[in-house]
């Protein structure tokens, strides 16, 4: 993690002439940026703006510069539970596989799963700067930090939903910038609780769905030395939202969490390395990659120990154009948070090879 903090403490961000990186620890609370009023009130400024940064950014010079926006959902319909994921990302400095979007659906009740991966020509893809206005064949995503509308069309199904955030936005690491691996800074914020409703159609059957979504917005340079990562999003019964990052680069290993409280304050804390508590490996028949499907997550500073497991079925891998893949799976957790019994639902994202 960039800097490890005790409860209710945040990292101060030091500006350099060309890049931004984490520095000293400051012993004061910081207030989150709300979706309606994206301003910091603690004296430590946020470096992301949920009102403006939903739009596309002017790319840096790096070939691995990317813009990414996605949401994961837990919704219900007709007595069944579904997990949804919609993701679009662009690498505008690449010649191949530069514009892409994906859609996946898991019926957690029956285990049925399907995903769709669309490669798009640059001329057919639009993501406006300064606002959320994305259009591509089969995908429309518009709106702002108050309300969004998403439509997806695939050969086997479709999605038409409205998303409305409740509560404050989450700036990762409390400021919205952190080192993803080996000193390479990344920008990221979330709208971690969005009321979700609309229509899901799979294999000709229509479902009127309702539930919640977690939206993540990320951009910057993807480190070429990044070997693997795990990301998890967890919502606690008391309203706390937790985002866990566990990354392994050529020269760095970081495992940490941003905790957003309902009042807008943060904890940024150490997490024990995720690999230490990973078990029950599953190997993808499509790519040959291996992923764990169970984790014991320990956050000592928060008296937290959680058992996380993939739900539905383990085959929730999305394949990539280079022949690889990454896991984007629904999960459930039980255990103790701040010493109290908790349970809930979340998503787990994993890339790289996880053979023990």
From TrEMBL:
Alphabetized Pfam families for the sequence: CrtC, Lipocalin_9
Keywords: Hydrolase, Signal
Domain AttH, first and last residues per copy: 94-221
Residues of the signal peptide: 1-32
UniProt KW Signal keyword: yes
GO molecular function per UniProt: hydrolase activity
Name used for this protein in its record: Predicted secreted hydrolase
Lineage summary: Bacteria, Bacillati, Actinomycetota, Actinomycetes, Pseudonocardiales
